Amino acid sequence: MLWELIATVFAGLGAAGIALLLRKLTKNRAPRWLIPVFAGTAMLGFQIQSEYTWYQHTASRLPAGVVVIKKIEQQTAWRPWSYLYPQTLRFIAADVANASANNLNPQVKLVDLYFFERRAQARRVPQVVHCLQYAQADFSAQLQIPEGSTAVDANWKKLSSDDPLIRALCRS
Fold first, then answer.
1. This prediction's pTM
2. Rounded to the nearest 10 degrees, how much is the dihedral formed by the CA atoms of 34, 10, 59, 53?
3. Which of 16, 108, 147, 172 is most buried, judged by most C-beta within 10 A?
């Protein structure tokens, strides 16, 4: 975040320098208000560009075997351009390559989900997924792992058969 602030300031300084150069080339006939307008426009433009490229940049840096399963696009009033093109400011990734199957029931897998959010540190949340019953639960010592085709209890959240987590983890 500090580097982004520094880059934003330098974008503004660079654009202000271009406005100063325009004033010099026109022998100071160009209006003085061009300097802050150029600086502000460059800073705002850099921030918008940074917001729109954050998801692609962060997702491209994920290690092999970590799959993006959901991206959340947002539209907000203080970013009116987001109504034309929504911004992805959060996404969820699953570490499919390091998922492990349960010894008692190989259809139950332990996987780490990573929650990414713009300007926030990523969070890791271990989850247990039942591939046959399309269910997901938080990993804890109290969680009852069903054996065979036994039904899951109330601690499990039902998922649809085409849920991205089920597709990424169970069909790979």
1. 0.84
2. 10
3. 108
Task: Check residue 73 and give its pLDDT.
Answer: 94
C-alpha to C-alpha distances, 1 to 12, 41, 49, 75, 131, nearest whole angstrom = 17, 20, 15, 22, 39
Residue tagged 């890791």 (tokens): 124
pLDDT, average across residues 100-118: 91
Closest C-alpha to 143, from 162, 128, 161, 122? 128
Residue 154 confidence (pLDDT): 78
- The tens digit of pLDDT for each residue in 124-161 reads 999 999 988 898 999 988 777 777 677 777 788 999 98
Question: What are the helix (H) ranges across 26-142?
Answer: 34-60
